[in-house]
Each structure stands twice: as structure tokens, then as C-alpha cells.
């Protein structure tokens, strides 16, 4: 799941020129870190044949360390959120579940977390992916 999301974000125009890695970022400008926050099962249904359908939400945090140019950084965050919304609406986000037409990826709560001494600022963006996973007896 992380590899798929990482590859997807590498295509984002707003992240071009940044080094995206898995994990937290240090105070190095031009870096971004992605990590998972966990999966929540929103709904679980079992049919008469034993098949299980689960609606899940996976949460991720993207943290960016950028030069402290607030207007440019806020424009970058808004552009990234708009790009993710457009890609999700067009069903071009990574397929995480069994029903691609039911998947949704959202980018929310983009904000400046802190300003660092030395002229950098750290921004965070919360990513939420909702998807449906189907399980059958053969998969178990």
C-alpha cells in the first residue's frame, strides 16, 4: 500500500523538485516524508457463502520541509490537494481494494506545523484512502 501511494505522489506536480521518502523528514529543505497512520474498518458484511466485504479507511501523513516562503508553500499545498482531488475523481489513484470504482483518496488539513530556525518550515497534510476489500474462502 505504501509503495503504491509513494509512486502516486511522485507524479504530483506540486511535489516536483522535492525528495519524497518513507518516514519523517528532518530540517532539510526540499524533503517530504510519508508514513501510515493505520487502517480502520468502517463496515463489514458477510454473505451466505462466507464471502466478506469490508469498507476500510487508511490514513497517511505527508510532512514537507520547505524554505520558509509561506505564500509559495501555501500555494503548493493547495495545488497538491486539488491535484489529489482531481486524480481521485478521475479514478487515477492507486488501487488499494477490490472495487476501483468505489475508491476515494482525499487530502485534508494541510497546514504549517512549525517554523524551524534556519529559514525552513514544516507542513503536514493528511491523506485518507477509502476502499472496499472483498475476501472469499479461497483467499484465506
Description of the molecule:
This protein has helices spanning about 1-10, 70-90; strands at about 20, 30-45, 50-65, 105-115, 120-135. It is of the alpha+beta class and about 140 residues long. It has a five-stranded mixed β-sheet with strand order 1-2-3-5-4. A hairpin with a 3-residue loop joins strand 4 and strand 5 (about 120-135). The model has no long low-confidence stretch (mean pLDDT about 90).
Quick summary:
The protein is of the alpha+beta class. It contains two helices and five strands.
Query: Into which percent range does the helicity of residues fall?
Result: 10-25%
Number of strands: 5
Radius of gyration (Å):
17 Å
Instruction: Give the averaged pLDDT, no decimals.
Output: 90
Enumerate how many helices there are, as a single number: 2
Q: Which stretches are poorly predicted, pLDDT < 50 over at least 5 residues?
A: none
Classify the secondary structure makeup into a structural class.
alpha+beta
Strand proportion, as a percent range, falls in over 45%
Largest sheet: 5 strands, mixed
Arrangement of strands in the largest sheet: 1-2-3-5-4
Give the H and E element order: HEEEHEE
Q: Which word captures the global form?
A: elongated
List the topology elements.
Elements: H1 2-10, E1 19-22, E2 31-46, E3 52-67, H2 70-89, E4 104-116, E5 120-135
Parallel strand pairs: 1-2
Antiparallel strand pairs: 2-3, 3-5, 4-5
